[in-house]
Amino acid sequence: MSDIPTELPDFLGWPDLASRANAGAVVWATDESFAERENLIRSSEPVFDPTEFGNKGKVYDGWETRRRRHSEIGGHDAAIVRLGVPGQIRGIIVDTAWFTGNFPPQFAVSGLTCDEVLSGEEIAALPEDSWTTLVPVTDALGDHRHYFEITGDAAGRRFTHVRLDMIPDGGIARLRVHGQPVPDPRFLGGTVDLAALENGGRVTACSNMFYSRPDHVISLGRARNMGEGWENARRRDDGNDSVTVELAGEGRVRWIELDTSYFVFNAPGDVKITGITGDGGEVELVAKTRSLPDHRHRFLVSDPEEGSTGPTPVTAVRVDVYPDGGLSRLRVWGELTEEGRRTIRSRW
């Protein structure tokens, strides 16, 4: 494309907080009849094959909706992206690459701060005054990369979601949201992943491993697709599935990450996480709670500032999923006890 400026904006030096590579997810859209919404945050540059057609028409590497005729449905289309890494937004790119006869006449971008675990539908139903304008209604160009620097009060705020309004319909290839990550300080204690395979964690029990190995959940890095997580079969009885991980050594758990990335239609409905002590006792780490598809859940078990000793030491954790459903990754962050350190030293 010839629209890329000779001098690129300074905000490109910040990471793309919405990128799929950084755990971003498109959690809701009004429509995706021609091209799926997830394409908006792919880390790769959009491509185009003039000969490629599918059952729904021309295949586009972007998000494309049906023709929204006011006599039929009115209004305009929109998509909501949950930032994989919440933060202060420095700049936004709306890219209509390869959309020439089907790009929207106008678009706008708004930001939201919401740390509650809400579904895309619940986010979309929040009142309009919950959103902050980042990019006002702007005339669009086809096959063009639109750059917007975020300034003023909005630049100093922390956002967790952005909404792309496409007015009234059409196609947009990519949405980039560059900014400075703003972490929750409660999750930044001096901890290690006690469950990590590379640190010595191992799966000791699993109710079902029909589609993939359960030890994927403690593997290195983030899953790149559903096949790199743990997926069980569809459960047809009244029970539930679970996986148990023996920790690298006895430790005090501070917080847990449960990642359902790429499990869009087959994530668990609810999850519960239990700690198992050295003598076989059980400690509730995360009570049975709702889980969301394609989402990184973070559960604070114990704030380090609450006390020097922290929670009850455990040697293993069991994750129960209700009634079934897949997980991409499990991270159990905490500190080793002296007994845990002795165990690891003895192996060394």
What does this 3D model show about the protein?
The chain is mainly β and 348 residues long. It has two domains: 173 residues, Galactose-binding domain-like (Jelly Rolls), CATH 2.60.120.260; 158 residues, Sandwich (Jelly Rolls). 4% of the residues lie in helices and 39% in strands. It is built from two helices and 19 strands. Strands 12, 13, 14, 15, 16, 17, 18 and 19 form an eight-stranded antiparallel β-sheet that branches. Strands 1, 5, 6, 7, 8, 9 and 11 form a seven-stranded antiparallel β-sheet that branches. The chain has a two-stranded antiparallel sheet with strand order 2-3. It starts with 24 loop residues before the first strand and ends with a helix.
The radius of gyration computed from the alpha-carbon positions, rounded to a whole number of angstroms, is 22 Å
Q: How helical, in percent, are the residues?
A: under 10%
Spell out the helices and strands N to C: EEEEEEHEEEEEEEEEEEEEH
Could you say which structural class the secondary elements and strand pairing correspond to?
mainly beta
How many domains would you count in the coordinates?
2
CATH topology of the largest domain: Jelly Rolls
Please give the count of helices.
2
Estimate the mean pLDDT confidence. 91
Unreliable spans are none
EC number: 3.5.3.4
Domain Allantoicase: 24-181, 200-336
Catalytic activity: allantoate + H2O = (S)-ureidoglycolate + urea
InterPro entries: Allantoicase, Allantoicase_dom, Galactose-bd-like_sf
